[in-house]
Design goal:
With 403 residues, this protein is mainly α. A two-stranded antiparallel ribbon has the order 1-2. Helix 1 packs antiparallel against helix 7. It is globular, with a radius of gyration of 20 Å. It starts with a helix and ends in a 9-residue tail after the last helix.
């Protein structure tokens, strides 16, 4: 009944995507100051627990049950009702349980991406409220609209592994968060541990193969294409960022190389299974240049996006959807679409409209959500809390010489 090869592959891919959240915790943890390492790492790890609970209660159902052509699904499969181990899913003949687990890992990491933007400034109770509300009001609707048979899917919008549904909406939610909570009061000595950043990048890059190649949901030529395109784009973006920063900043910096790799990974995500390897090279180079420029613009405008979530993930996801609209081709994937450079004018327009809608929606809902949360519990940390978040909010320290 089930294809054991596809099932085994998807279990591995699910495990790889799960590993990305701890990888993100290390990546962000290394970028912040020594006194605030645990406060940002717990924001990633707590999503693994809380999001799983919400996914079981209603998340999966709201994303993938009913609501064809709409904005959100229904609650027919809340608490996984009507699903058993023998229920199959898709052409790859994998158990539905495997698909549920795979999509759950996407739900876990997406809100965790946002936390790098407001590092050191958001209280933990407010973050928990934000995590739940953002999943329900932003993430679940977009997953349904794009991957659950909703309005964008019916319209013909494509997003192979999460350019809109993960990176773009997280990045523009991050920007809204930055503008709402304001700048840090206390200057942080960052990054405190570049080796931790490197470790986190390695785990993210490794996990991204499951993120992108796994999104084909079976093993075929598109799976291999997505895997290879992922590595190509990340590598070219990393090299581009390194040499661009070297030219402008006079030093070849490891953090720049690592940030460029993540930018390339985010940018190729929506296009990984829909473009040629040559297009992946172009996407990687463009990602390195554009995302570097976005971070420079953020600095010029004095937006305190602490860990460049908007510049890397928001702009990267947006750019990936644009590049898919330009470079997509059915020659490599019949389930895809031809981009503007292959005669697909209408497809390009649809991608542009989708990215505009997702950016505005994610930004507006996130800003309003934080305002509402602040009515019930303070969102912003106090000056005393900000100076030593690990001790003041969690009663723990990452290093013994910190009190």
């Amino acid at each position: 009944m089930f294809d054991t090869g596809n099932t085994g592959f998807m279990l591995v891919a699910t495990s790889l995507v799960m590993l990305m959240t701890p990888g993100l915790a290390f990546f962000y943890g290394g970028l912040v100051g020594r006194k605030n390492v645990l406060s940002i790492m717990i924001q990633s790890f707590v999503s693994m627990g809380v999001t799983t609970v919400i996914w079981w209660i209603c998340g999966y159902s709201l994303c993938f049950s009913g609501g064809e052509g709409g904005v959100i699904g229904n609650l027919d499969q809340a608490f996984f009702m009507g699903i058993d181990p023998m229920t199959p899913y898709g052409a790859g003949r994998i158990p539905l349980y495997v698909f549920i687990a795979y999509q759950m890992m996407f739900a876990i990491i997406t809100p965790a991406l946002i936390t790098g933007a407001f590092a050191n400034r958001v209280r933990f109770p407010a973050y928990l409220a934000f995590l739940v509300a953002w999943l329900l009001l932003v993430y679940f609707p977009f997953v349904h609209m794009i991957w659950g048979g909703g309005i964008l899917a019916k319209w013909g919008v494509l997003d192979f592994a999460g350019g809109i549904a993960v990176h773009n909406i997280a990045g523009f939610a991050a920007l809204a968060s930055v503008l709402y909570v304001g700048r840090r009061r206390i200057a942080d000595s960052v990054p405190h541990s570049i080796p931790l950043v490197a470790l986190g990048t390695g785990l993210l890059w490794f996990g991204w193969y499951g993120f992108n190649a796994g999104s084909e949901l079976q093993v075929d030529t598109v799976t291999a294409l997505a895997f290879l395109n992922t590595d190509i784009a990340a590598s070219f973006a990393a090299a581009t960022w390194l040499f661009l920063a070297w030219r402008l900043e006079k030093k070849p910096k490891l953090v720049g190389l690592l940030t460029g790799a993540v930018a390339g990974l985010a940018t190729i995500t929506p296009a990984a299974g829909f473009v040629t390897t040559t297009s992946a090279v172009i996407i990687g180079i463009v990602a390195g240049i554009v995302c570097y420029g976005a971070v420079a613009l953020k600095n010029k405008l004095h937006w305190d996006d602490a860990l460049d979530v908007w510049g890397v993930h928001g702009v990267g996801g947006l750019l990936g959807i644009i590049m898919l609209g330009l470079l997509g081709t059915t020659a490599v994937n019949a389930a895809g679409a031809n981009g503007l450079f292959h005669g697909g004018t209408h497809f390009f327009v649809k991608q542009m409209v989708a990215i505009l809608v997702s950016s505005i929606y994610a930004f507006g809902f996130t800003y309003g959500m934080l305002w509402v949360i602040n009515l019930f519990t303070p969102v912003r940390t106090s000056t005393d809390e900000e100076s030593t978040l690990d001790v003041s909010l969690h009663g723990e320290v990452a290093y013994e010489d910190i009190t």
